[in-house]
């Protein structure tokens, strides 16, 4: 795993927060919003809370209700749902109690890699992509006004790229007392490369250019993530930019590492 976050060319501070931990199989990326620098407070709370919940879960101290045996998907699902819930609760209560943080919130994409699989939860328009061979696809679907217009055939994806309503999300963490995260699970294959990014990258560069950049530097994730930031800045750098890359080197069964504790919950 490797990742970079950058303020871009037009913002005087960075409201994105990122975290990744290959040993835990955890990736978190949050893009904050709110006046008086409250966006960076919201994204920071979200990342801190999610890391805390996942850590407790992997120490077997987090209460979970697991409906099905012989699969880690219920565990990963419950952990991510709980993590987003507590992040939302913490941001919302902080915004209610501190006037300078009123209305703050954050988009979010977070994932757990486990048992040669990937569980991802997202809220808003921060994205997850997958590069598998020559196929580069977006795995998450934006929770945004523009995506709703695309789904309703009101505009095309190309028209959406040039719209003035790019930043209107329909869901965000911490804005209301509860939030609904979207969760999915995917099989992971050796050689896969996953990109987690804020809209500071996806709004500036099209998918083809992003895929080409990742492919060109795929042997060096640190360099590749840095090149993605440069790509967004070269295209205008209008927003904060964050990118995390994860390359799957080999299969990773659940009986290795911290996830072995999750396996034990089913025995």
In short:
The chain is of the alpha+beta class. It has eight helices and ten strands.
Explain what this protein looks like in three dimensions.
This protein has 267 residues and is α+β, with helices and mostly antiparallel strands. The chain has a single domain, classed as 4-Layer Sandwich (Phosphatase 2c, domain 1). It has eight helices and ten strands. The strands form two sheets. A five-stranded antiparallel β-sheet has the order 1-10-9-6-7. Strand 6 and strand 7 (135-138) form a beta hairpin. The protein is globular and about 50 Å long. The protein starts with a strand and ends with a helix. Mean pLDDT is 89; it is low at 64-70 and 263-267. It holds the Pfam family PP2C_2. It comes from Iodobacter ciconiae. InterPro entries: PP2C, PPM-type-like_dom_sf, PPM-type_phosphatase-like_dom.
Which CATH-level-2 architecture?
Answer: 4-Layer Sandwich
> How does the major sheet shape up?
5 strands, antiparallel
- Name of the top-level CATH class: Alpha Beta
Report the total helices.
Answer: 8
What helical percentage do the residues reach?
25-40%
Structural class: alpha+beta
Name the average pLDDT: 89
Rg, Å, rounded: 18 Å
Could you state the CATH homologous superfamily? PPM-type phosphatase domain
Q: How many domain units? A: 1
The counted number of beta strands is 10
DSSP strand content: 15-25%
> What do we call the CATH topology?
Phosphatase 2c, domain 1
- Order of strands, main sheet, comes to 1-10-9-6-7
Instruction: Give the overall silhouette.
Output: globular
Poorly predicted ranges (pLDDT <50, ≥5 residues)?
64-70, 263-267
Protein name: Stp1/IreP family PP2C-type Ser/Thr phosphatase
Domain PPM-type phosphatase: 1-248
GO molecular function: protein serine/threonine phosphatase activity
Pfam families: PP2C_2 (PF13672)
């Amino acid at each position: 795993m490797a990742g970079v976050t950058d303020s871009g060319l037009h913002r005087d501070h960075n409201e994105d927060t990122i975290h990744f931990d290959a040993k835990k199989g955890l990736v978190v990326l949050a893009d904050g919003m709110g006046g008086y620098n409250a966006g960076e407070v919201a994204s920071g709370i979200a990342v801190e809370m999610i890391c805390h919940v996942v850590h407790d879960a992997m120490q077997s101290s987090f209460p979970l209700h697991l409906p099905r045996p012989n699969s880690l998907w219920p565990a990963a699902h419950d952990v991510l749902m709980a993590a987003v819930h507590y992040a939302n609760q913490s941001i919302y209560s902080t915004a209610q109690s501190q006037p300078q943080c009123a209305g703050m919130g954050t988009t979010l994409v977070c994932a757990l890699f486990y048992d040669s699989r990937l569980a991802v939860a997202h809220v808003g328009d921060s994205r997850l992509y997958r590069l598998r061979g020559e196929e580069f696809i977006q795995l998450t679907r934006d929770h945004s006004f523009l995506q709703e217009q695309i789904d309703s055939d009101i505009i095309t994806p190309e028209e959406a790229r040039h719209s003035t309503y790019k930043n209107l999300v329909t869901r965000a963490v911490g804005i209301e007392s509860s939030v609904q995260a979207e969760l999915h699970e995917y099989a992971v294959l050796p050689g896969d490369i996953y990109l987690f990014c804020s809209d500071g990258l996806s709004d500036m560069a099209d998918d083809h250019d992003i895929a080409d950049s990742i492919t060109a530097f795929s042997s060096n994730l640190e360099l590749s993530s840095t090149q993605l930031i440069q790509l967004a800045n070269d295209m205008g750098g209008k927003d904060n930019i964050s990118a995390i890359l994860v390359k799957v080197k080999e299969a990773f069964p659940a009986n290795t590492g911290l996830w072995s504790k999750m396996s034990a919950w089913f025995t």
